[in-house]
Amino acid sequence: MIKKITLLALTLTTLGAFAQIPTGYYDSATGTEFALKTQLKKIIDNNNDGLATEYQSIDKGYSYLYTTYQSSDSDNYYENNGTVLDMYSEKPGGVDAYEYTHITDKDNGTGGTVEGDFYNREHTIPQSVFSSASPMKNDAHFVIPSDKKVNAQRGNLPYGVVDVANWTSTNGSKRGNNLNSGYSAGYTGDVFEPIDEFKGDIARVNLYFAVRYEDQVAGWPYDMFDGTSDKVFTQTFFNILYQWHLQDPVSQREIDRNNAIFAEQNNRNPFIDHPEYVYEIWKNTLGVEDYTANEFNIHPNPTYADVVYINKGDIKVSKLNLYSITGKLVLSKKITHNQGTITLENLNKLASGIYLLKIQTDNNTIVKKLVIN
Ligand SMILES: [Ca+2]
Ligand SMILES: [Ca+2]
Ligand SMILES: [Ca+2]
Ligand SMILES: [Ca+2]
């Protein structure tokens, strides 16, 4: 009996070690903007960069992805039956059209002409972008399990907001031309759109890729990329990913997935551990090129009352949205009276901390940090 209890305690301790961010893991992430991005790259890459706490990532190979998926991508959240959690076929509010048993139902090289035949490995950044090279090809953070048919329908398309769908999967994932307005304005080619439940998940694995491979990404051709190693994404595709990151915040499923992949690959997705890093890194690329920061002066900031005042010059503002640092919408206000200074009230109801205020103008979105006391 004592032996059993000791074994159980040991097992729990071992699991516990994987079930959280290791102490010191992000200690060297002290900068802001693209300097922070490079610091994160050193934390999650496979090089020894001489960090005080150095975790070098491990490439476990292409076939091992199916093994990793058993711990990282099981449905313990919806049907809760341990089948493969496939973001392209999972119906969060209902019964899935089909389910896959891990390993048994993996792609054997046949079928895939209809949905439900087999699951395989979907490179959310297409393999063709990096010429199917390792370790990218084998990186479970952004290579996810998916139905073989849906995987093929997405092909090498960027992620975006579908205007008119020319193909739709059983759970509502869509392919079609990109909606060339709103936050997805600026691209008219075909894109693939995951369902709302997984938009943030997909955004954060794309953002992970931009950090993990920032020393190589500038040479890789892809419509989502702008050819730089720092910003990485074109303005349009960054806007899409950022919007999805905000509207579908980090879930327990992603936290569990990150921990499970860390246990195998020895590296983590920083944007699941620290959702606020997205803003910290890309804050100067959030569609602010038309305005200087001073034109949206927020005061008092930090707050000491129930209201803040936003000086906006002559710019017409249509909406204010306040998000928590994890991306949860906590306040929303339509602006109709639009002269001089505008206000945002009801701040006393909110917990102290850092928030992101999204200011919607006629043709742009500005994001400013707001600290609530
Ligand atoms: Ca390193
Ligand atoms: Ca399911
Ligand atoms: Ca379901
Ligand atoms: Ca989600």
Residue windows where pLDDT falls under 50 for at least 5 positions: 1-18, 288-293
Total E-strand runs: 12
> Quaternary arrangement of the chains shown?
single chain
Q: Which ligands appear in the coordinates?
A: calcium ion
SS element count, helices: 9
The overall pLDDT average reads: 90
- What is the N-to-C order of secondary-structure elements (H for helix, E for strand)? HHHEEHEEEHHHHHEEEEEEE
* Strand numbers in spatial order across the main sheet: 9-8-11-12
Instruction: Estimate the helix proportion, in percent.
Output: 25-40%
Number of domains: 2
Query: Cα distance, first to last residue?
Result: 52 Å
Strand content: 15-25%
Using only CA atoms, what is the Rg?
22 Å
Instruction: Specify the overall morphology.
Output: globular
- Output the structural class: alpha+beta
Question: Main traits of this protein?
Answer:
373 residues; 12 strands; four-stranded antiparallel sheet; Immunoglobulin-like; alpha+beta; 2 domains; three-stranded antiparallel sheet; 27% helix
